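Risk register update: the risk that structure generation would not scale has been downgraded. Supporting records follow, first protein first.
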Amino acid sequence: MAIDRKELVQGHNPELFGFDYDSPMILGNGEFAFSADVTGLQTFYEDYRDNLPLCTMSQWGWHTTPVSQERYSYTRDDLQLTMYDTYGRQVGYAKKKMPGNEQVYDWLRQNPHRLNLGRVGFGIKKRDGSPVKKEDITNIYQELDLYDGVLYSRFKVEGVPCAVRTCVHPTRDMIAVEVHSELITTHQMQIEITFPYGSPDKTASDWDNKDAHSTDVVFSDDGIVQMKRTLDQDEYYVTIRETSDNETEKRGRHLVVINAKTGNTIKTCIEFSNREKRSNIPTSRVFKECEAYWNNYWEEGGVVRLRDSRDPRGRELERRIILSQYLTAVQCAGSVPPQETGLSCNSWYGKFHLEMHFWHSAHFHFWNRTALLERSMQWYIDHLPDAKALAESQGYRGARWPKMVAADGIDSPSPIAPLLIWQQPHIIWYLESCYQDHPDQATLKKYADVMFETAEFMADFAVWDDQSGRYVLGPPCIPAQERHEPDKCMNPTYELEYWVFGLKIACQWWERMGLAPEKNGWM
């Protein structure tokens, strides 16, 4: 019997009846995400910041804090490395803070850090003119329609109803919002956009350092207002659309306010971009394209129905599967590997950990959504030279993939990360998933360099042990448990088996391409 997918998915729509500071709703498309409180925007930002902060984040939005007025950045060459004896040769790893090198170590760990692009919330006043507090928000009901990707929020202020609809465009870094309330007519309700400086902390926001960044209106015409944001050497654009029906005004250094010219409705689209985009797009179209995207997402991929299981845990497992399919599509299906907290907030300065890419994204292949995993494969192609440079700096052939990196692909110093190796075979499995999805020569050729250079390092990292008559891994290395001394660890079980698994796939690729076995060192 066919599964009614709409009924299945909507049966697990998340609902809120009050503030939940650990579980704000989130909207997104894999490249961009926007988290919202019970008003449908980020109105009560301060109340969430110590739990799960409300952020507007993208895969391209990063900030680098200058080292000083005289110097913008450090490089890996500025680090003092910890040397490990590796079968008779010394190999350096950025593992420890060395005396006199602490600033370099900390700066490279924290930079670049992901940036909160801006806070979009409501400015609401009570009848006496005082700002609304969370205690003034009553009759709360919020529902995220998973099947359409649209967030619906209803609440009252002093008995006056407010209805809000929010979504994110499926392919653009754009929020669409539509709000209806008589509070708009009485000029008690408006949309406010505020911008922070960058910070490596969880919130990705520094609201105090107002002089370190700028917000400048660079275009205002044809229903569009565009601002340029500048933070040191980083910049991006924020474009507000449908302004012909609204009054859009910049107030102060980093605040933009949107009011309706007449009536009880505000409709607008707000787009964030690393380049100028000025084409207009109506809010209604954003909602339609959002709904079409999510409808197709649920209808095309794999789903399971468990609620009729005789096992009482079936419905809860079904709920978790549906919510995981939504959340990973929002947070972990972008053009770069996801950080551990996706696009919700910063963890580890917003950097992503390549050993965790597998857990966040490899599942897409098994739900017949390999294309969502493949979005991030270009990052490995682009940063293959960086991985090869890392391997070469340690005296290895091939490409050594780091553990903790930003979009720049540069290995971050860490007590653990530089000595982990279990992320290495992940890349081989990703590429094999892509091949299984479209098994042709074009796929093999597109990813051949990444596949074979990854395997080349794995083969070179393994050392032949004459005494045991076998190849061994390490020392030095740190296994996945992250609890072993690197200079004593040899042949961790998981990594050893994964090495064999990955090299076998690389050999299969070599044969599929019709290449001669003697041309590589790992067949």
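Supporting record for the second protein:
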Amino acid sequence: MSTPLRHILSLIFAVLLVSCGRNDRMRQTLEQAEWMNQHDSLFTSDSIGLSLVRYYDHWWHPANLRLRAYYMLGCAYRDMGDKTIALRHFETAVQKADTLDPDCDYATLSRIFGEMGAIYGEQSQPYEHLHAYQEQSHLALKARDTLLSIGALAHTVGSYSVLGDTATMMNVANKVRRLFLQRGEHELAARVYDTPIYTFALKGDYNQVRRLLDIYERESGLFDKHGNIQPGNELYYYSKGLLYKGTNKTDSAEYYFRRLMASDYSMEASEALLSIYQARENADSIEKYEQIHQQEKAKRAIRSRMSIHAAQLSESKYEQAQSRHLASQKESEARMAWYLFLFVAAALALVLSIVYIIYNKVRHRTRQRDEALQQTRDKLQKAEAQIGNWDMALREEQLQGEEIVQLFVAMAHKEYNGKRPTKREWGKLTSVFKRHMPHVWSQFVTSKLSDQERLVALLTLIDIPSNAIATLLDISPQAVGNAKSGANQKLSGEKSASALLATLKKVSQVADSIQPTQH
């Protein structure tokens, strides 16, 4: 064999050895990550998931390996608390699966749908929650995991309850109970009734509540010898309290509502206790629980708004990940979110402390009590307005960072020797604006701004001066002034061109403040 040929073969052999060695290391990394996930070891970063995706996300790797890699990346973001990005990676993992392949990894695929269902439940998306768990149940059967299939079906009971389909809810719950009993899982069979008990209690169907509670309390295995339910299942106390309240056993109802106060359902508990004391005309207790209920309601509202803002930040980070280094971007966003959380938590703690002190001093003086409550409401409104201002500033910063916006700014400053935007560039600018400022654009449409007024308002909001707007739109400065004046009049009722920018910022802040609160 000639010397050059020996060198070529030696090189090929060396490359194969290196490739095989790396493949073995990556396979070990994947299996280690899966072991950690199965044994509840939380991922603290996305580095392992990203390395798996970078290695396996190629056509020459089997679909099952690509599926598993994206699953691990999604689990990393799930453990890190970024559920929106986790959901996107779980969706990508599902797309990587080849269900026509007889060797398809149905077991992993079913677990992915379970993860998606849990996130949909947290985000109050009942239809998506229902579909995800239905798919998990179907795929778990294909993977011959009957217990997981039944458990996934049990999750759909809550979906039907939220959707108001009580008949289907009970049909599914009874089916799940029957399947669990066939496998000898008596405790799980009883626990499936927790949601129907709550649903019927809310509807006032106390015969159904009594029947299901009898099974739940005898067979679920969730109660100790003193009748205390295991943590995480405190909604039982609320259902029990509603049953007693609805059957005029208010002392018993009061007992269970008080037990509920120490749980995550303290707002519902304080509201229920307030209604009992109002019926009894107990002034001191009414005053006490009205104050507690307002505090708990304010806490939940702020948590909901923070959740919405966190989801918006996550979506923004995912879109930017295609062009920026994901690790540094996530670190920066997470630090900002943490600082925001600490600030809001400190402000809320300060407000609640002030309310508590004032309440203790003036509890017997009705007039001063009302003044203290008003002060608290004003401070909460200011805190909410502050959050809205931060959200608006973040939206504007992200909008200014878009490439098309920077192009328009450059053309406005004549950095392109008088070049004017093309029709395609106008369309792209409008599309980017709609994505970042959807509520402002919606107000443009609702207020019936003309096409020219919309474009003038859009350019004004991204800090393009009037003379540059005239150049970009190829109209006179007078026409720009008229368009600003007309847009401002339609949006605020005041015919003032110079006040348009202030009006636009106010419209955006108002739009943020009226977003629906999710519970």
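DSSP finds 24 helices and no strands in the chain. On this basis the risk owner (M.S.) recommends closing the item.
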